[in-house]
Design brief:
14% of the residues lie in helices and 31% in strands. The chain is an alpha+beta fold and 461 residues long. It has two domains: 282 residues, Purple Acid Phosphatase, chain A, domain 2 (4-Layer Sandwich), CATH 3.60.21; 154 residues, Jelly Rolls. The strands form four sheets. Strands 2, 3, 4, 6, 7, 9 and 10 form a seven-stranded antiparallel sheet that branches. It has a seven-stranded mixed sheet with strand order 15-16-17-18-20-19-21. The N terminus is likely disordered.
């Protein structure tokens, strides 16, 4: 008489994935290697404005530059680009509005200027250079104390001196900080492509959460992304405070938005302050999965990536959790990474662990997933591999991160939770994964001027 043997499902999954991994190792697979990119920020070497009712006055030492139509005021900027190598793939003019003005409906039209010899301390309305290089782009409505950008790539081809001019047809002027103010002065960010792939050629997944507002943290982390090839993820709260269409336009689009075409986002609670998160879904479109649902999956190399929505039901019987289990069972990839907004494990003082997310974690654990990344608390934290109850599990546990350091002001830590291995609440940055065939590398990449570091390697189950 033949006896039936009940084999635990996780052993079946493990054998299946081992066989798949062996097949993938034997079969020839061609992976397109992205070219490496580098971004360099140049500060203005000259900036000033001129005014039509003060034809002989020079404003070269002013703390502000202005574009206005009543009176007519025009701004002139000059940059010296040097030391770039490779092909220029992007050049962006960045301007920061002053804090002492409520804003303007128009940030002006920005054009090329052929002359590069005008004098910052000598030019006046009467002696201004011609704005003759053609319009490059416009800035829409601006608020106080925020960064705004214009694509000026067609004007920058490599090393050399380049000038820009700004005008406005609106009688409500826009005021920007000058180089005399320091860090908020005009910038020119030039990105080049060296044409060579990164060392490993394996896919890169990089991102963070809690990102865009009127501060400068999001601009600094977006500059990091300029120099990192690969796929971008977000862990929610993409824009503050309310996820409106206007906030996506004003705050997210000029910074992380320049990487929208390679971004797979997830929504956060601030995105849902706008009813139905319509600002989020309309901005990202199909990049955010089916509109209004907020959960979806995709593959990168040997990895299955899942973006989930912690703002809707996550109960074991919910449509989302049932979809997740079906999606994981159908995956043929040996490694799995998931991300959503609210963390199951966190030491953050502002937001407690979200136990409602446990069914998602349980489904991932049952299917031998490897990595989970969250946001919500504005800090960086890494935990040891754990099971759904929070106990260390080196055999099947998922390694988890809180990656809420994308740009919004930091939160502090409260009681440090068990198995927390690395923490930081002062550095902005991004979390980068290099996804190998059956393993992964991680590293925290800090913004310029900050030095916190965390890196390591893990293997898939």
């Amino acid at each position: 008489m033949r006896r039936s043997i009940d084999i635990p499902i996780f052993l079946v999954m493990r054998v299946r994935r081992a066989v798949l991994a062996l097949l993938l190792a034997v079969l020839p697979v061609t992976v397109a290697s992205p070219a490496s990119a580098a971004a360099t920020t140049f500060t203005a070497v000259a900036d000033t404005y001129v005014q039509n009712d003060a034809t002989g006055t020079n404003y070269g030492t002013s703390a502000q530059i202005v574009v206005d139509n009543s009176p007519v005021r025009r701004t002139f900027l000059r940059f010296t680009v040097n030391g770039v190598s490779g092909t220029v793939t992007s050049a962006r003019l960045r301007l920061h509005t002053i804090s002492g003005n409520t804003g303007s409906p128009s940030g002006g039209t920005w054009s090329g200027v052929s002359s590069t010899t005008w004098s910052e301390t000598g030019v006046t309305w009467a002696s201004q250079p011609a704005i003759d290089g053609g319009a490059l782009g416009t800035i829409g409505s601006v608020g106080a104390s925020g960064w705004y950008e214009v694509d000026v790539t067609s004007r920058v081809t490599g090393d050399g001196t380049v000038s820009f001019g700004g005008t406005s047809s609106n009688s409500d002027g826009a005021y920007f900080d000058t180089r005399e103010t320091g860090a908020n002065g005009p910038q020119l960010v030039v990105t080049t492509d060296s044409g060579t792939p990164p060392p490993s050629g394996d896919p890169v997944l990089v991102g963070a959460g809690d990102i865009a507002d009127s501060g400068s943290g999001d601009s600094a982390t977006a500059t990091l992304l300029d120099g990192i090839a690969g796929t971008v993820f977000t862990t929610g709260d993409n824009v503050y405070d309310s996820g409106t269409a206007a906030e996506f336009t004003s705050y997210y689009a000029p910074t992380w938005g320049r990487h929208r075409s390679r971004t797979y986002p997830t929504p956060g609670n601030h995105d849902y302050v706008t009813s139905g998160a319509t600002g989020y879904y309309n901005y990202f479109g199909t990049r955010a999965g089916p509109s209004g649902r907020g959960y979806y999956s995709y593959d990168l190399g040997n990895w299955h990536i899942v973006s989930l929505n912690s703002n809707i039901s996550m109960a074991a019987s919910s449509a989302q959790t049932q979809w997740l289990r079906t999606d994981l069972a159908a995956s043929t990839k040996p490694c799995t990474l998931a991300y959503w907004h609210h963390p199951l494990f966190t030491s953050g003082a502002n937001h407690a662990p979200s136990t409602a997310t446990r069914p998602l974690y349980q489904a991932l654990y049952d299917n031998n997933a490897d990595v989970v990344v969250w946001g919500h608390n504005h800090q960086y934290e890494r935990f040891a591999p754990m099971n759904p109850s929070g106990a260390v599990d080196t055999a099947r546990g998922l390694r988890t991160w809180v990656a809420g350091m994308g740009g919004a002001s930091h939160y502090g830590f409260g009681t440090i939770q068990p198995n927390s291995e690395a923490r930081n609440s002062s550095a902005y940055g991004v979390l980068e994964f290099t996804l190998h065939g059956n393993a992964y590398d991680w590293r925290f990449v800090p913004v310029a001027g900050q030095s916190y570091a965390d890196s390591g390697t893990g293997t898939c189950h």
